[in-house]
Amino acid sequence: MNLTERTTDNIEYMITAIKDKLRMVNVGAMRSENFNVAAYEDLKDIYDLVMKKETFSISEMEAIVSELGTLVKK
């Protein structure tokens, strides 16, 4: 997968990977179609951060989810 391309497929891939890595319970709250391609770089930064770490504290998870919330289309 070439994540340098700003595509909806890549957004879906990154969101799914983030949800899986964070073991999110309420996965319905974070749907890939809610994210705009305009926020792609920010989403990619979050994805890169999440994929680098093995474990997350509760506060880190909350911060990540909060940041993702700011990227959702309004």
From TrEMBL:
It comes from the Bacteria. InterPro entries: UPF0435 (IPR009507). Belongs to the UPF0435 family. This is UPF0435 protein GCM10007140_30540. It comes from Priestia taiwanensis.
